[in-house]
Write a structure and sequence with these properties.
Blueprint lengths: L1 H7 L3 E4 L5 H14 L5 E4 L9 H6 L4 H9 L6
Parallel strand pairs: 1-2
Length: 77
């Protein structure tokens, strides 16, 4: 994971966990590694109960809906 952390240094990062315990745990571990290294970090839990972002889009959601959800999220710096 250190190689990814360096590649993302100073960037804005959005993490979207799978909707299960392992998915949330993985995103939490990634977020911990990135804290203090990225310019902006957002962990976005998708509304609607989809198992992951692929299924969420498959249910007919759009990129604009994703942006709307992001705009409503609190930002960690």
């Amino acid at each position: 994971m250190p190689q990814y952390t360096e590649a993302l240094r100073g960037r804005e990062v959005i993490l979207i966990p799978d909707n299960d315990a392992p998915g949330r745990k993985r995103v939490l571990n990634i977020a911990r590694a990135l804290l203090g290294k990225v310019a902006r970090l957002v962990v976005l839990e998708l509304e609607g109960g989809s198992k992951d972002v692929t299924e969420w889009f498959g249910q007919g959601h759009s990129d604009l809906e994703l942006i709307e959800q992001l705009d409503g999220e609190e930002v960690s710096r």
